[in-house]
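Two proteins follow. First one:
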Amino acid sequence: MSDSNVMDALMGKLYEIVSAKDTITNVEREEPYVSFTRPGIPLSEDSLDFGFVTMTADQNALAADFSELVNGVPVQSSFWNPTGRKVYDEYFKIIDQPVLPTVTLSSDEEAQLLRAKQFLFREEQYQDPITGEMVTTYVESLILERYKAYETAWETAFTSYQTQLEDYLLRRDTDPLAAEIWARKGPILKQKVQRAYQAWVSAGKNRVEEVQALIGNLERRGPNRLWSDRRERYRSHIRDDFQGGNYLLTKYFPQKFWSTENGSSWMEFSFRHDEVHKVDTSKKERYGGGTSGSFGLWSWGGKMQRETTDTYSGADTSNFSLKVEIAKIPLRRTWMDAGVFSSRAWMFDEEMNPESEYLSNGEIPPTGTMVAYPSSILVARNLELIIDMSSQQNSYSHEKITGSARAGWGPFSVKGNYYKETSRQTHDFVSDHNGIKAPGMQIIGFINQPLPKCPNPDENLNWPQ
């Protein structure tokens, strides 16, 4: 089997796990687009040590680096490759000076909108780490924070269930133990999903979604105040990176997901040679599959920074297997209301944003300035790759990756620096004739939310002439 067969199947199995439809609690989930890395982007715990609001100058620099990394707009192609545009710029392009319907809200509706805003967001102050001045920002209310925490717990439980189910479906015909393992683990994992969902409901799921729906309905009646609130919230999150620029604070959730207290964020994923031709790869367009025949699983480069000039080489995968811990980590952009992307109650001023600046035409495949944006990162750690390192192909690649500054196998990094360019820490592997182990934490994919046609104004609304 070719390297491209292996890579397509590996990405396909991961995609099925993170995109599966919920058949247990029937939570609606939109099918994502996943951009896998080639190779992974190493992460260190230290590089993620920054807060939601109050931070030191050093933490501020870390937050700026992380926000820069996860706000890249992806190209819809085989692997993660940002376009150079940023999510926060594309979002601001919409909320800055949209053309809005001329209908206004009644006094009762204005009061409803104010209560809805106060239900979902609150003011908080932090001290600027350089000037010492107190700055006011708008953050998620405790109710909304709790909603997202329980949503993440449900998502983790469901992904764990789906991981075990996918193993069973791929192995039931050849592995005598597959049915026994599924019979033992499946009901337990299903029950965990159901309990996590009930906890989410008890934490206010329905009420939060009712308020969000109310805002969506009021928006069609006269959204001027709502858009003013969006601009105010956006501007309150602009921070100085102290390097001559600004950034919009973007956080991950839960806090310190790698720690023992949050061990439930992780699930064990495995993949082996006898699964390659069993994986359904019919949705390649949703995860960048369809790699070329010249694809090589091994990769290495001479510099610490990530480049596109890496060397790729084929691997002997005649009898390989891998296991790794993975975690799907949501990104939190308090400054962004993602509802604007599907709202039909705004349009662009053509003089400011011509058709070439439209975010998405909503077609398949889509075109536009931001056809999708990262909503989660897929993080891996404790990679164990069992592969014959004494074969000619793998022995050659092993020599090359040992002498290089960075290296990878498929979507995984086995050696390199952390994404923060100034970091002196490194991510490395250990190996023997049986394979490679890389314990470090790394991003192996970005789970992206595709956009509908945007803008897509409703012609039945009362637009200014």
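Second one, unrelated to the first:
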Amino acid sequence: MPQMTGGAGGGPDQTQIDRALRSGSGPIVNAPPAVLVLIAILIGIQAAIQWAGKDWETWSFYAFALIPARFQGPEATTMIEGSQYWSLVTYAFLHDGWLHVLFNSIWLLIFGTPVARQFGTLRFLLIALVSTLGGAIAMLVLFWGVFIVAVGASAAVSGLLAAAIPIMFGGRAGPLSFGEFLRDRRAMIFMVIFLVMTLLSSVQWLPTFADGARIAWEAHLGGFIAGLIAYFVVSRRGVRHG
């Protein structure tokens, strides 16, 4: 939206409002380019897979989805050599249908925006990467050797949500420090609400994105913890203001 300066009474007068509305100079989506590009990549990959057909979708999951059984070796499941390692990251770029990718894109826009604004592109992407790995590690710890297929950017989104909490509840002095975060009642309530919703998502009668699919709440939780840790580690090295 167009930015407006305050009038004599502390707020914009009608003339300023009318001028701003006529100018149309503000961006349609006021989010950092890194967030918008990442969303475009997720949607573009989903569109390409859908256009290519079922066989390509099956191959994409075979090559890039997170499957804990891969780590038991080729004797446990057929796989492309090395896919057990790159799938720790690439699983985040695949989704189980349009509803899945659109939900993740919306939450990425909401919670990725304050993180990208606070830290800039590289550290925003670093937090997203660490969160993705955190979600993958949580799945491996809990499902080691099990043949399940995990896809989606939810772990990265959960980590960015965690990183956004100290930013959103910080004051004029800047984001919350670790001590302030632990003492801030609003931040704690927000975190508890997220954790409760994450655990409730494990209830089997809740709607799923596709028949037979379940929400990988373990990856959400792993991504959240990893993202929160990454935020405080990154923030100790300086914060970009502006």
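SUMMARY FIELD: Residues 1-12, 16-28, 204-212, 237-242 have pLDDT under 50 and may be disordered. The CA atoms of residues 90 and 99 lie 19 Å apart.
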